[in-house]
Amino acid sequence: MPKGIIITEWTEDQGLVTKFNFPEEVETDLDDMMRIFYAHITGAGEAGNVLVRLEKARSNVSSYFTGMESEKPIMVNLILELGEEPEMFGETVIQEINESILTFVMRMGTDVSQDYEIIKELKSYIKGALFLLERLKNLTKEQRLAQIYISEKGRTILEMLQEKPLSRKELQSILGEKLNKIISNIEISLDPFIKTGLIKQDWVEGDSDISLFLLSDFSFFRSPATKLIEGAKKNLPTPTLATKYLEAVNKFFAGYSPTFEDNLKIAKNMMNPDKYDYITLFRERAYPINKLPRGPGESPEEIGGFLKAMEEDNIIIILKDEKNIDWILLFTDVVAHTFYPEYMIEKIRKESMEGKLKKNLAIKHLEFLEETYKK
């Protein structure tokens, strides 16, 4: 699991200084911190991410640097186990955590009397963020599909395999060219594809590397919450709520059309374990806001933050009943739909006929697709 977070700042008079580490027992020596810093400033010293392996500390470090030209040149260093990489948790999630941490750090020093409270809030936030990252290692199938969708790397891999089968080396090379970055560990990038059954890896006679075959595809979209719709038609949970709910849902879906931006939004909601727990909960029934189940350690403020964000994203809706009590209902369900990639059959035939795909690869892929279709 992630070990902790260390925040450092570059200053002209003292050099690299550790500003904050949580938990306190998580430490790396100055030499290691300088290695990470030099990895950032090699070149123009611009803002960005690096992944550094620290042998002495037996850790991988996912580090974000604000850049030498920023007001405060800050590094946010996520300390991971040697076998862990940020991609395992979702690059978007790591980015959001870094941005949130920086908002705390930038507030420090403006009013010394407030620093104690800011540090207290920061500790609480990082504790929750590390717990979130640990939970992200145990995702459901639809969450893993969301993990692929919200990642530029994941979407690019899918687009490449929608064209034809590729060897791992081919995929790694072309992916690096498309994204203009070095792809260091293709196995981790492929992990959600394998665990969701989207691809199959196999050796093809005569080839020196494992080939990757797309067996299933997927899409994201919003759907009416079936159980709540059925209940509302029977005037549940109350006649007033049922009427308001059906009117709001009918109006929304009358004008709804899936878009990439909206699908990205719902995939991000699905990837967040806390929001996903609430989506799963609200699929079954509506809840008065004062009787909403709370997870262990969740504060009313945290829950309020989740609910507000989900309401803004049109995942939930809050309506008042006859007694002026607020109820939470799932407004739009989020669906990760997998389907058989029938389009691949014609692509394989065409690529093979034009000599762009080796015959043995084409036959192997068609055999796998036939097995998948029969299942």
Features:
single chain, 375 residues, alpha+beta, Beta-Lactamase, Arc Repressor Mutant, subunit A, five-stranded antiparallel beta sheet, 48% helix
Annotation field: number of helices: 14
- From the helix content, strand content and strand pairing, which structural class follows? alpha+beta
CATH architecture of the largest domain: 2-Layer Sandwich
Task: Please state the CA-atom Rg, rounded to the nearest Å.
Answer: 24 Å
Number of domains: 3
Largest sheet: 5 strands, antiparallel
CATH top level class name of the largest domain: Alpha Beta
The side-by-side strand order for the widest beta sheet comes to: 2-1-5-4-3
Quaternary structure: single chain
Fill in the CATH topology of the largest domain. Answer: Beta-Lactamase
Strand content: 15-25%
What is the H/E order?
EEHEEEHHHHEHHEEEHHHHEHEEEHH
Distance between the amino and carboxyl termini: 36 Å
Quick one: how many beta strands? 13
Shape: flat
Overall pLDDT level: 91
- Please bin the fraction of helical residues: 40-55%
Low-pLDDT regions: none
